[in-house]
Amino acid sequence: MLYSKDDQDKLKDRYLTPIFGTEASDEPLPKYKLRKDPVEPEVAYRLIKDDLLDEGSARLNLSTFCQTYMEPEATKIMAETLEKNAIDKSEYPQTTELENRCVNMIADLWHAPDDEKFLGTSTVGSSEACMLGGMAMKFRWRNNAIKQGLDVKAKKPNLVISSGYQVCWEKFCVYWDIEMRLVPLDEQHMSMNMDTVMDFVDEYTIGIVGIMGITYTGKFDDIKALDTLVEDYNQKNPKFPIYIHVDGASGGMFAPFIEPDLEWDFRLKNVVSINTSGHKYGLVYPGIGWVLWRDEKWLPKELIFSVSYLGGSLPTMAINFSRSASQIIGQYYNFLRYGYEGYKKIHERTRDVAMYISKELEKTGLFEIYNDGSNLPIVCWKMKKDANKEWNLYDLADRIRMKGWQVPAYPLPENLQDDIIQRVVVRADLSEQLGVLLMEDMNRAIKELDEAHILPHGGDQVNNKGVYGFTH
Ligand SMILES: *Cc1c(COP(=O)(O)O)cnc(C)c1O
User: Fold this and answer.
1) What CA–CA distance (Å, rounded) separates 251 from 326?
2) In terms of residue numbers, what domain contains 369?
3) 447, CA 20 to 30 Å: which among 83, 168, 393, 470?
4) At which residues is N6-(pyridoxal phosphate)lysine found (predicted)?
């Protein structure tokens, strides 16, 4: 006999006990210390799943750019490849091959010139990708500055970007001790101000970052105009030329399909590196990002490390080391599955829904639309000055939250911080019908707020900032 009677009874008991009859479900989940004893897998699954229950549906969260839907086959292959380590190129050479194919395809989408040798890598997201792009700019600047005899210690190097930057650039500047020079947004310039941007540039500038899809509003910086200004500057300042990195976190995987004629990428001479988030309009679950340089000369050698690969060596330039390769495989799945036309159809439909929402909002007569979803499918609005309502956008956000929708209200950046806006990020899984439901709920919420007895707000709206904070 393998077990004593006692043990056998125990085993039988555990197996047959219904999940909600188990000891583990009779007590709160452990918070500070490991439980002494294990819990059966199906019980652990259920208890954790339930612990997450009140977070609502990610698909109704219209504040995030990150994907909330993938096809079951994509999820399946990603789940089946979780154990593959993306950094381990020699153990998983075919996974490495898939990553390289993705880099090639993205380089093609971004018009990397045939006569240059592009280079790129997957990352955890755009934040890591921007960090790499920024580091390349800094090292490149320093190498040149030393060559030109500039005292590189006399001043902090600086980075020029619009005040609508995403927080990863602030991190980059703090981590690498760079002065962040902000080109302010204002009412007339809701993307980078091309009349003033070059005033911020000097010999200590490591580069200019153009944003394809300002996080706050979805607007594109005019990268083509920027390229012309930079070209002119470089003609006049050949010793300290400036180059452009494009932060295409959202636009980099959208514009190539929806506005193929818009020149913002490697078609422009001075755009030397670009990043994007595979988990935004690349349609993969978080976290995957990409960064590419148009030619290897733009990535200083100091930043390239070699790892062994199929008996040879392969350059790597990631900040992270071990992570699962399943996101890379998910990206390759989407590229194969959708093809150019598939991405185009999905994005077109997504944009249609955004424009529908924008039109419906306009019909209320209450809102001024900042972005109508016709470039990136992001709708962004503020209350009209003469709307004459006792409630504000924070109240509206609160009210539609009752139906599960998360549509944050928040202040615009510096200079415009008195403007409170509300934003909907339309993603691939928000169908026309879901858009219709959203607007029905929105109109109902407005009616309810109109009829409600509103308690006056303490302080001004600006002091409420951060209530619905968002960082992506
Ligand atoms: C989302 C975003 C980022 C950060 O991207 P992650 O992929 O979330 O790390 C950077 N820049 C812009 C413009 C963004 O929209």
Assistant:
1) 23
2) 342-451
3) 470
4) 280
